[in-house]
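Supplementary Data S3. Sequence and structure tokens for construct A.
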Amino acid sequence: MTKIIEIDTKRLKLRQWRKDDLPIFAKLNADPVVMKYYPDVLSEKQSNEMAEKIESSIAQRGWGFWAVEKTDNKNFIGFVGLNEPTYDLPVTPCVEIGWRLAKKYWGNGYATEAAKAAMVVAFDKLNFSEIVSFTSVSNKQSRAVMERLGMINMQENFEHPLIPENSPLREHVLYKIEKQHWKAN
């Protein structure tokens, strides 16, 4: 059985998913503000299927898009972590870092704090040579997190294959950080 990596930061715990996370995750995925840079909100069924897929991936590999909870009150606030996209991108195969938090937790530095901890695992424990991240060009908040992580805008925008062709969200910006650059900073 694969050992599941869990991460503790000053204010957060990144851990395997639990069944009691699912209703909160479904609310998060049904929020049009949270899902502004995705093609649509998710139904409860779609959200549960996504969480179960993420949970299964962590169970198999020991890492993935971890559930994030605040350590002071144990509240589930969303996910942050690592993923290997299974669809064609200009950079696949790759490992991406990503996040999705409930709106009420935005603006507190949680995404950056958790993502920095995930990068430590990516580079020090899993020995990845680079990490990428991507989002819709207009998603300034996620781009700011990428920049706080020390990631570099590769100036290689691309059309995301899972976003409809006529969508204003289809053009994505690509950020990357190499292990040596991360270690130097």
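Construct B, processed identically:
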Amino acid sequence: MKRKALALLSGGLDSTLAVKMMLDMGIDVEALNFTSPFCTCTGKNRGCKSEAIRVAEEFKIPIKVIHKGLDYLNIVRNPQYGYGKGLNPCVDCRIYLLRKAKEYMAECGADFIITGEVLGQRPMSQRRDTLRVIERDSGLEGLLLRPLSAQHFEPTIAEREGWVDREKLLAIKGRSRKELFELAEEIDVKNYPCPAGGCLLTELSFVPKMQDLFDHSDDLDPRDFRLLKIGRHLRVGERTKVIIGRDESDNDLLEAARKEGEAAITWLDGNTPVGVITGRQAPECLDLSARIMLRYTKAEKGVACRISVRQSGTEQVLTVCNDLDEEAVKGYIISL
């Protein structure tokens, strides 16, 4: 009887190699990819989702894409196993992914799960002790095979039952990627643009925007987290933020993401970024947001300026004074 593996496929090198190894052993493989608002592989048509789909198409295997939703954001907000150097709950994140994979495993008829994890490659989630915790808490003891480092672990069910040949599994360990690149050459794996992946939650410069959103939100909204990668973010009220575009691309993205009831502001008499006000739409916050937005235009200081306010299908003109200097605006900046 031919066996089937469910693979966590990011589109990066490690998971691609794990999939190719299983296929070369005659195992049927189905891929599972998770999208995240915090992935750093975001170039046009080069994000992790598109890379995972490309790999699946190249290998001629089915793939299912799952979006990390509100349940995931709540884990990021309150992780059981804490954070790394940033706001990265790597252990909890891995448990979350594998629990989802276990649910889908029954649905797709897979016999076991494979990942591209390498022992010791990542300091938080790929230590021996944390790998054991992840396997235990995800409910996958004996069912989780890590082909690239399998020789460092006790045999899984797939190995004990002879579904896969343990002798053909590897013993890669540590942070060096030399062996992975050599393996890619050996088994003819090419075109891997995100060999190590990347997560914004590990970047210290991203932490203030994340923490601000947690501190000033009663209910979490995935859209608000996606917007963290766009524009300048300034806190203008306890429940109000203005996001100001840096360029035309930001302006377009902000306009497209704007919800019903949220105001978009622009300066009527010159080149202007778009400012989108999220959260509570109080008049005083609108006025302050408009004055802040003018700081990023060439409007003459100290003069009254006309501001277009588009909201709920209507447009009005607001007149505000361009009276905030650089120091005053700094007090509202969450992150540049």
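DSSP finds twelve helices and twelve strands in the chain. The mean pLDDT is 93.
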